[in-house]
Every structure is written in C-alpha cells, then in structure tokens.
Amino acid sequence: MMWMLLRLACCLVVLAAAPAWAESLTLKDDHPQRYVVKKGDTLWDIAARFLEEPWRWPEIWRVNPQIHNPHLIHPGDVVVLTFEDGRPRLRLQRETGPRVVRLRPEVRRIPLEVAQTRLPMETIRPFFAHEGILAPGDLARAGRLVGSDDDRIILGPGDRIYAADLLPGARIYQVFRPGRRFFDPDSGELLGREAVHLGEARLEQAGDPAVLRILSARREILPGDRLLPLEQAHVASELIPRLPDRPLDGRILDVLEGVSRIGQYQVVVLDLGERDGAEPGQVLGVYQRPGVLAMAAEDGEPLSLPEQRVGRVMIFRTYDRLSYALVTEAMRELRVNDRIQAHP
C-alpha cells in the first residue's frame, strides 16, 4: 500500500538554537503527549498543538541529516513530545518501524486566501493594493490635479482631468492625498508620509498639463490632489509568522482609522523599516511601563516599574524607514509610543 506523502512548506535555513534574547518556550496547558499526523498537517499546525507561540517552531524541531527525505512526513506518523535538558522536543516515530527520528525544520507558510481563517486579511489587503507611505522627497515629484473639463470641484470615475508636472513614462497613475507625517520619536527626523489612496487615472494625452481620465475612485477626488505612477505593491502569496533573527527595537507611531485606543486586529505604523531589518511576517512584542510606585526606597525617590509585554504585532508591509503591522494580540489597550521589541 502506497503512502500518501505530505510535502510540507518550503524549507528555510534557520539556526538550531533560539536567539539569545528569546524567552523560554511555553507549552500549552492542554498539549498532547502524542499526536498522529493527518493529511494536510504541516509542522506549523503540529507545533501549534504543543506551543503557545507556534512561530517559534525552529526551537522545538531539530535537524537529523541521516533521515531519508526529511522534508516529507506521512499521514499516520506519530509525533511524540520528549524533553532534553528540560527543554521540549518533538520527535517523529513512523509506524513502519520502532525507531525515533528527528524532523527537519520546516516553515508553515500561510497562503493569503487560507489565512483568512487565522488572520483578518480583509483588514490588511487594501494596504497591498492601494495604501502606502511616501518617502521624504516623493511628494515633491508628484503631479498636481489642476482641473477638469467643466471645472467641477468633486470628481469621480469617467471624468477627464488635467495634471501639471506629471512624471512621464506611466499609463496608469495613482491619485492620492498627502496624509499624516511620521517622525522619529527621538530625533524628530521625518521618516515618511501617508499617501491616502483616492483612485486611479489613465493617461490619454501627454503634456503639461497632461490629460487623464479617472478610472476608479474610492472617495471624492478634488483639484489639488496629487498623482504618481501606480506601482502595485508586491503581494506576497504567503505570510510566514516567525521571530526576527536579530533584536529589533522601535515604537508604535500611529494607528489607522484615527483612534487613540488600539486593540486586536487594528493596523499600526511602526518606526521600523527595511533598513532596520524589518520584514513581513516578523512577530514582535509590544511593551508598556505600568508607572511608578509612590512609596519608594530609602532615598524617597519613586520607583519606575519595569516594562511588561502587553501585546504582539505582526509586520505585513515594509518601507525604507517605516512598516505596517497588524495587532495580533492585545492584553490591554495599546497606545501610540508603546515600545516594539523583537522579544516576544
């Protein structure tokens, strides 16, 4: 009888040991001692049955180079929980023999269409297609909507418009309105600016002014709005939740939708970008300092309480100096200026 082989997701190169700054692994209270692999299981799914933080899967699986085809497991194989020096390990025991072998580390890739059952992808999908952040200097290069055929103030799909100083070389342009500015909390340096997506327009006649026709509008378009060549963001077909491979330290700069209280599944802006090592899929902790103790030590000075982790975020889109992240966990209200660290 032929086995139905289960090919796990693409293998990544990972360190066998946890980062030095990572906290100890925590098993779920209701974790099993043994688990029988089913068709469709991945190492992420299996790790999630045992770990509170399944994105830390590399710390519980280990490489055994002597296993033939270690990137394959079979429905019916038995995963057994063991301990080495007090640390949990998952080992694979095949029904075809009594030997216990170790699994090769594999990553759980989450396709966007599948991930909707795990994360509210409808919340972040617009940021892949439309919403974005302007780097310093981008606004100065953008064209300006200077008018329309009949001098109407509010414009929409089908309207013909005129734009001055339009960057050449594109056929489709994004119509946007400059939004909030994001500054470095410490230095005050401008890191970027929100580009509020209004719609798209197609070039009909080059020149200055150029002639365009509005193809779509998500909200009203007004004279004075800006235009840049439309660059569709690369939509990764998969999100790979994982710990960063090095410490990161930043802050929440803003929360979308103009609210001051931040909860689960809201989108926040972080002052961490590609130059800092931020990547889509990275899971980071959110930290707050509770306050100070009025009663102090012998010198009479109040004592500051240590920072405590109050939530987690997952980065899903990055720019040079900034990134968008989804709040995946909030144990209390999160706030702008809360610290973000790769110490989840």
Largest sheet composition: 6 strands, antiparallel, barrel
Number of DSSP strand runs: 23
SS-derived structural category:
mainly beta
Overall pLDDT confidence: 76
Order of helices and strands: EEHEEEEEHHEHEEEEEEEEEEEEEEE
Low-confidence stretches: 1-17, 63-71, 112-117
Physical arrangement of strands within the biggest beta sheet: 9-10-13-12-11-14
Distance between the termini: 45 Å
Number of helices: 4
Q: Could you tell me the strand content as a percent range?
A: 35-45%
Q: What's the Cα radius of gyration?
A: 25 Å
Question: Oligomeric state of the chains?
Answer: single chain
User: What share of the residues lie within helices?
Assistant: under 10%
Domain count: the total is 3
What general form does the structure show? elongated
Provide a compact summary of the structure.
With 344 residues, the protein is mainly β.
